[in-house]
Amino acid sequence: MKAVGVVVEYNPFHNGHKYHLDQAKEQSGADIVIAVMSGNFLQRGEPALVSKWARAEMALYGGADLVFELPYAFAAQNADIFADGAISVLAAAGCESVCFGSEAGEIDSFISTLEFLANHETEFQAKIKKYNALGYSYPKSVSLSFEALEPDGSLLDLSKPNNILGLQYVAAINRHGSGLRPMTIKRKNAGYHDEHFSSETIASATSIRKSLFSNGSNMESIQSYLPRSSFHLLMRYKKHYGRFHSWEDYWPLLKYKLLQSSPEELATIHEVEEGLEYRLRENSLHATSFMEFMEKIKTKRYTWTRLQRVCLHILMNVKRSEMQAGTAKYLRLLGMSATGRAYLQKNKKVLGLPLVSRPSASKDLLELDIRASRIYSLGLDGDSQDRLLKEEFSQPPIQIQDKKTSC
Amino acid sequence: MKAVGVVVEYNPFHNGHKYHLDQAKEQSGADIVIAVMSGNFLQRGEPALVSKWARAEMALYGGADLVFELPYAFAAQNADIFADGAISVLAAAGCESVCFGSEAGEIDSFISTLEFLANHETEFQAKIKKYNALGYSYPKSVSLSFEALEPDGSLLDLSKPNNILGLQYVAAINRHGSGLRPMTIKRKNAGYHDEHFSSETIASATSIRKSLFSNGSNMESIQSYLPRSSFHLLMRYKKHYGRFHSWEDYWPLLKYKLLQSSPEELATIHEVEEGLEYRLRENSLHATSFMEFMEKIKTKRYTWTRLQRVCLHILMNVKRSEMQAGTAKYLRLLGMSATGRAYLQKNKKVLGLPLVSRPSASKDLLELDIRASRIYSLGLDGDSQDRLLKEEFSQPPIQIQDKKTSC
């Protein structure tokens, strides 16, 4: 059984993701699709709309066969650490290829861009340093430095977010020599950050989230952009837990945390550096919402994403010493189709990392992920909170039946 | 001008307190009454119903001439440290006597009980240790040990809470040799912990608080137990800030704090000892209210009060190293009558400690008190929270006019 890997967040799973899964399978000729998915908190440093369990279920109904959790130590990190974690999970799970969506849509430009960068390494790093010193954010410095190297037209456009992410996946594959074959497909229609719907069935997750929060009860407006299963699972979540999660739900906790911590304590938190602890404490004092707080603290130097991640690490009380990333240490199974289950049974002994399907047996290993689930549940009210909290330990991997009779 | 001192919490100020102030003045023959009052958090480890500003104003209208804040480092402590702080403030403020309410109602039994205990010191301490080892709480061990010493009938009844507290005041006066004259008056009618009203005008603060929380909008039921000014100030507070404070308002923050702290971090908090950190963390997980949590963690060994104080120190993130009590280091002025103001002007140069009337100029000194005010404000919602937060720095000492033309 051949497996293709995908790196996902599914916040929430929509028709564009479905297209990606179908294409990944078709173009790779794989029998199954293995997804590595961020847990309850995402790469941009924000809570997922719905829990990892609900999103894993959406992924399974949408065509994934196995869903593994990308550990917090990788998920809430910048793109290269995120890629290291994701690629190491997919390699350990036995994938033969990895397929990602990009604006470029063909893999050669990724390979040649990496070669070009390797040949201009010193110059490139020097330029990044220079732009950084001028006060540009890291991603902006990278993109400006790349431009300044005058790449020819066959190379990637590094102002596009999915090209950058894809480049990190290919680089991570090279770094870990994991023998995975990188593949890419062109993203359909909607740009990653598009806030407005641009076609009748494809919309970005950003625009869908915006609709979910702004339209309140009028959920029909997003129905055409999601597989029916995703829509149903979203509605079920809201009914069961009372809301979709957003940073605002955690703002009282973050504000409290900032007000009761000393600057010295804050400075031990991952990514809190360069005196950021004073800036954050001071500005938390009179902000009455997370958005207001973010507007107060943002500068040209720090991207919104970077600051959100800093806030998340503070909320989570994650010390610098706890974020020794490297590569993944375990495969945390969130869900499987019948085919996925057969694959696991067949390959159990050749997996590259220990398989964790019951967190209670691996509390130490999963400490950060368990903490993330606990903090995530605090965004809900009383009873809902307690129900979600219990899931982390009581929920076995989600299983769905499928028609593929397998092997 | 002769001053008599009183040690108070006024949660809220009621007719019994008014009687105490009148008697203190009359029996001491003093010209003014100086109150040292707990700030936003009280000796029992709980938030005050309304802020220290509102309570200081009640005190002034009720007959106090100067109100100083008992610093957090003393206020949220067991009785002997509480007494050390309070007596050192009153001594530094120039009081000639201290008058406290007690069940005994005459001062000789306090003096002779202290003498008796000094004569039986070794035996007494050994017995306390023994009862403690049997699993009794500290206050219970003290009371049992005292009984076991077979004191004669002229000594105090140490099963009564105000006798115990009074004994600590007299002991603190002896310790600091501050030359204050101890006086006591018999408490009127209602016992300290009485939950039900027992006369037509005197009720315990406990029963008044219970009414305030349980009756909701029907505030008239408590009106006869409070001076009109107190009742008016309570109502104004609720209207202005939206609620009276209770532990339940802080429960989401305490739960969050417990879930995101490591046991090692918790163990650095003041009064978290003997492995209590594990007991607290574990039991916070599925408690959905503060009351439920307290019921889960309480044991024979730890009094409710002690555990509430532990919870408060955790909420406040107060490290053991921050609670170097000893005696007070400053006089934080919360309010004054015209007479009180004249007294201060006259005695400014002979005060035993620096007078702080603007916290912004003494941020380091007041760090714990400022933190307490910030955390206290988080019990309110959005705008109210911000308004209360600003008061800590913008509010000058409260001043009221009075008829006494002074000096």
TrEMBL record, chains A, B:
InterPro entries: Rossmann-like_a/b/a_fold (IPR014729), tRNA(Met)_cyd_acetate_ligase (IPR008513). It catalyses: cytidine(34) in elongator tRNA(Met) + acetate + ATP = N(4)-acetylcytidine(34) in elongator tRNA(Met) + AMP + diphosphate. Pfam families: HIGH_NTase1. It is found in: Cytoplasm. One of its GO terms (molecular function) is ligase activity, forming carbon-nitrogen bonds. Keywords: ATP-binding, Cytoplasm, Ligase, Nucleotide-binding, RNA-binding, tRNA processing, tRNA-binding. Catalyzes the formation of N(4)-acetylcytidine (ac(4)C) at the wobble position of elongator tRNA(Met), using acetate and ATP as substrates. First activates an acetate ion to form acetyladenylate (Ac-AMP) and then transfers the acetyl group to tRNA to form ac(4)C34. This is tRNA(Met) cytidine acetate ligase.
